[in-house]
Fold this sequence. Notes:
The protein is an alpha/beta fold. The protein has one domain: Rossmann fold, CATH 3.40.50. It is 31% helix and 19% strand. A six-stranded mixed beta sheet has the order 3-2-4-1-5-6, with helices on both faces. α1 packs across α2 (63-74). The protein is globular and about 45 Å long. It comes from Janibacter alkaliphilus. Residues 16-40 are annotated as: Disordered. It is an enzyme of class 3 (hydrolase). InterPro entries: His_Pase_superF_clade-1 (IPR013078), His_PPase_superfam (IPR029033).
Amino acid sequence: xxxxxxxRILVLVRHASALGSGPSGDDHSRPLSEQGRADAQExxxxxxxxxxxxxxxxxxxxxxxRETMEEVGAAGCPEAEVQIEHRLYNGDSDxxxxxxxxxxxxxxxxxxVGHAPGVPAAVSMLADGEGDDEAHxxxxxxxxxxxxxxxxxxxxxxxxxxxSAVLEQVRHPAG
Length: 175
């Protein structure tokens, strides 16, 4: 298979499992649970094994999303500098799409770490039934904390639209 400079991979991740409340009792500061840390490390290994090194990482400012990316990176997934994107916190699918559309033009692999329901809804709407049958079957089983979806897209990030991507893989956490 030949690739062009317009072949893109978008990895959409829902943060790994978090504790019920943060030290200050607010949602924003909820840290990962021990299981969440293990799941995020396993995701990092899975991404590395499948060759999904990231050119750009866009992450919600919530503690659990930032810790998810720290664990993914610590597990050996090549990662770019993590950029905090405030629209991903409590963002809907349109916010996830808008953030992805603003990715660096020359980035081939972009990883977005956010929350439900925005991330799962964006996966569903971006792929719109296109892609691997097993991946779509996996998507019907839900999008639990720590789940990742890999979508392929051909074009400029700024032109990314619902129905323009192909769902390649969905990875649920083992824990």
